[in-house]
């Protein structure tokens, strides 16, 4: 009798340039769920005078509804979403049957 097993793999990426690849065999099925959060603002407000100063905004909050221009602007600091550090949480769920021994 073959038992199906389920395996969950979780990965957190703090760098938006990091990519991951998952491979599956034909005898298994998998699904991946990614949750993207934008956290602290990293815009340097003193760059034009040669300094470094951030505003202290800790998390992106959309200023408008999804699909509008304001959805990409932070309600807390007024910066574009791209200035906020991106965190990606990925969860992969695989179901597989072990080979016959």
Structure description:
It contains no helices and three strands. Strands 1-3-2 form a three-stranded antiparallel β-sheet, with no helix packed on it. The radius of gyration is 20 Å and the shape is elongated. It starts with a strand and ends in a 5-residue tail after the last strand. Pfam families: ZF-HD_dimer (PF04770).
Summary keywords:
single chain; 101 residues; mainly beta; 3 strands; elongated
Order of strands across the main sheet: 1-3-2
Please write the string of helix (H) and strand (E) elements.
Answer: EEE
How many beta-strand runs?
Answer: 3
The proportion of residues forming helix, as a percent range, comes to under 10%
User: Strand portion, in percent?
Assistant: 25-35%
What is the CA-atom radius of gyration, in angstroms? Answer: 20 Å
Query: Termini distance?
Result: 11 Å
**Shape, please?**
elongated
Helical segment count: 0
The residue ranges in which pLDDT falls below 50 over 5 or more consecutive positions are 16-27
Give a quick rundown of the structure.
The chain is an all-beta fold and 101 residues long.
Topology:
Elements: E1 5-13, E2 29-41, E3 84-96
């Amino acid at each position: 009798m073959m038992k199906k097993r389920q395996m969950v793999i979780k990965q957190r990426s703090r760098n938006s340039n990091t990519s991951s690849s998952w491979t599956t065999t034909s005898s298994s099925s998998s699904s991946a769920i990614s949750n993207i959060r934008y956290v602290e603002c990293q815009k340097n407000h003193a760059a034009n005078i040669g300094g470094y100063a951030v505003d202290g905004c800790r998390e992106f909050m959309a200023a408008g509804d999804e699909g509008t221009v304001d959805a990409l602007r932070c309600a807390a600091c007024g910066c574009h979403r791209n200035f906020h550090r991106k965190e990606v949480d990925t969860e992969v769920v695989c179901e597989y049957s072990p080979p016959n021994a």
